[in-house]
Structure to design on (117 residues):
């Protein structure tokens, strides 16, 4: 299992200790983790943060729009689709990262900061 950030876990734990039910809070944490993974995959595949920002904005709009009006009959399907996409994103992480060189050499790092080697 992929470990969650300690700050994120403590934030969720604070809600549980504050009186929220453990089950729904755990599902919310899982949903946020899977959505974050989806945004990461989108950023890596497109090479731009803009598309992840657009998807996040659409997600936020849909969450806020639920509070107004009446949801459509298929609105419940969106939650299931979100979980499926998140799980597929977790699976895709391996293929997105495979073959990439995440290390920055000392010379390149120095050049980026304006320091000559």
């Amino acid at each position: 299992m992929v470990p969650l950030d300690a700050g994120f876990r403590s934030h969720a734990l604070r809600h549980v200790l504050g009186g929220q039910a453990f089950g729904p809070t755990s599902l919310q944490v899982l949903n946020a983790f899977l959505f974050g993974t989806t945004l990461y995959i989108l950023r890596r595949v497109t090479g731009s943060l803009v598309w992840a920002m657009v998807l996040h904005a659409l997600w936020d709009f849909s969450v806020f729009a639920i509070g107004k009006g009446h949801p459509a009959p298929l609105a419940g399907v969106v939650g299931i689709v979100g979980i499926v996409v998140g799980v597929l994103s977790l699976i895709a992480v391996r293929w997105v990262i495979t073959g990439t060189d995440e290390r920055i050499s000392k010379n390149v790092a120095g050049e980026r900061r304006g320091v000559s080697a």
